[in-house]
Design a protein that fits this description.
Elements lengths: L8 H10 L2 H30 L4 H37 L3 H28 L1 H7 L7 H13 L1 H16 L3 H25 L3 H25 L16 H32 L4 H37 L3 H28 L1 H6 L5 H16 L1 H16 L3 H14 L1 H12 L1 H31 L6
Helix pairs in contact: 2-3, 2-8, 2-9, 2-11, 3-4, 3-6, 3-7, 3-10, 3-11, 4-7, 4-10, 5-6, 6-9, 7-8, 7-9, 8-9, 10-11, 10-16, 10-17, 11-12, 11-14, 11-15, 12-14, 12-15, 14-18, 15-16, 15-18, 16-18, 17-18
Length: 456
């Protein structure tokens, strides 16, 4: 199985359908987890080094994090939307259509990112203010964000390519591309920020250069036929049917990522009255939780190709077994991780910054979120189950609930009554409410999968 990237289409199909579920998921998940952790580490690296410049600089990175989330959302929407469709098409042996879906997603994601870059660069001041910047943070946020926007097109399409490599069971190839860029980023950050004295702009420059390297490596997998998917402008289809298929599955990813962006903007806006230290603390907390959640998403993305192939091949028994296995592993793992992070919350924040006020606010915020970590695992895996089985509406509802329907009213209301504590507890409460909704949707679906005469 270690040479899976050399398998023919038929051999890869048999591997995805016949390999024991636990072995297959772990084989796909390990490189995907590494890839996701590395992707998350891009922003973590910038935060760690920039925080040494000062609290205001750290807050500026937190402001632009929302913009980076939008860039990521575009790539993941086209990436996961096309990848899940591709997985089902490969499972149904419709290889030509799979090529068309992937090529369409590839070129469209670049085009959308170019539009975002143009809009952002021509409206930079208004954009950072909308994202929650204070007057003291604004100049640094503009310097960082304008540089990031230059690299948006290739940053976006990296996510699209990485997801499609995973969809055909070749997650290791995606990991190679993403990890190479991340290593370069870690090296370039201190060189550009301190060595060349470029400050916060140097951090952004290091990020877009490292992402460009990832782009080149990921693209080479398709150009040199290490992937079974054929990337070509001739396979591009400006077709409503193709886009409908992509967005039906990709919409939950878009909602989930945009809601993440909305939640960060809300955090910045409602933490603003408590000072730059509050914005910096919640920004660092967000980065830490995103880093941990990226491991869970990576694990879930190891599950999704198995789910998509099984759904396409009508192997519902295999699909159910895969989901139950992932829930057991995800919930138990995050219970342990949450416990350890709860104990070490203060030390974790100190890795980023030593400002006493930031430490105080951030430590409490992390501890509250750690308590609800196992619930977060179930919510994420439930959404991925529905997304990979063509139940876009249910997946969209779950994506919208956690950081939209539940979170936004909480973050807008609680600080008025309990001050900064309201900022710190809004997300954990939203997680608790979301798990109730997840259970209400998952149990009936699992019951349908178990019925021998199911019409699924």
């Amino acid at each position: 199985m270690s040479n899976s990237h050399n398998l023919s289409i038929e051999e890869n199909y048999k591997r995805m359908i016949d390999t024991p579920v636990k072995d297959l998921i772990l084989t796909l998940a390990v490189p995907t987890i590494i890839s996701m952790l590395i992707t998350s580490f891009y922003s973590m690296t910038d935060t760690i080094f920039v925080s040494h410049i000062g609290t205001t600089a750290s807050a500026a990175v937190g402001i632009v994090f929302s913009l980076m989330s939008i860039i990521q959302a575009i790539g993941i929407t086209f990436g996961q939307g096309s990848a899940n469709v591709v997985a089902r098409l490969l499972g149904a042996k419709e290889n030509k259509r799979a090529d068309e879906v992937f090529s369409t997603a590839f070129f469209t994601s670049i085009g959308v990112a170019l539009c975002l870059s143009f809009f952002g660069l021509t409206h930079m001041t208004g954009l950072v203010r909308f994202l929650g910047s204070t007057s003291t943070i604004e100049p640094l946020a503009i310097a960082y964000g304008s540089t990031i926007l230059i690299g948006a097109p290739w940053m976006t399409v990296c996510y699209t390519m990485n997801n499609n490599l995973r969809s055909e069971g070749k997650a290791t190839l995606g990991m190679i591309g993403m990890s190479s860029g991340a290593i370069i980023n870690v090296i370039l950050d201190p060189v550009f920020i301190f060595g060349l004295d470029l400050g916060i702009r140097g951090a952004a420059l290091a990020t877009i250069i490292s992402q460009l390297i990832s782009f080149g490596i990921l693209l080479s997998h398709f150009l040199y036929h290490r992937s079974n998917l054929h990337l070509s402008i001739r396979n591009f289809r400006f077709s409503w049917k193709v886009y409908k298929d992509i967005f039906k599955v990709g919409l939950p990813s878009l909602i989930r990522n945009l809601m993440g962006t909305v939640s960060v903007i809300c955090l910045n806006v409602f933490a603003g009255p408590f000072g730059d230290a509050a914005i910096a603390a919640m920004s660092i907390t967000n980065r830490i939780m995103q880093f941990l959640n990226s491991a869970l998403i990576g694990f879930g993305q190891g599950f999704q190709p198995v789910s998509g192939f099984s759904w396409g091949a009508k192997r519902y028994d295999r699909l159910k077994k895969a989901f139950v296995f992932c829930v057991k592993v995800g919930v138990s793992s995050f219970a342990i991780i949450g416990f350890l992070c709860f104990l070490g919350a203060n030390s974790i924040i100190r890795v980023f910054i030593s400002d006493p006020k930031v430490l105080e606010i951030g430590t409490v915020a992390i501890r509250f979120q750690c308590i609800l970590m196992p619930f977060m695992a179930f919510n994420t895996l439930s959404g991925m189950l529905f997304q990979s089985t063509n139940h876009g509406a249910k997946s969209s509802v779950l994506a919208l609930a956690r950081q939209g329907i539940f979170f936004v009213p909480l973050i807008a209301t609680l600080p008025k009554f309990v001050g900064i504590l309201g900022i710190q507890i809004s997300q954990p409460i939203a997680d608790l409410l979301s798990v109730v909704l997840s259970l209400a949707l998952v149990f009936p679906f699992m019951k349908e999968l178990s019925e021998p005469d199911s019409s699924l």
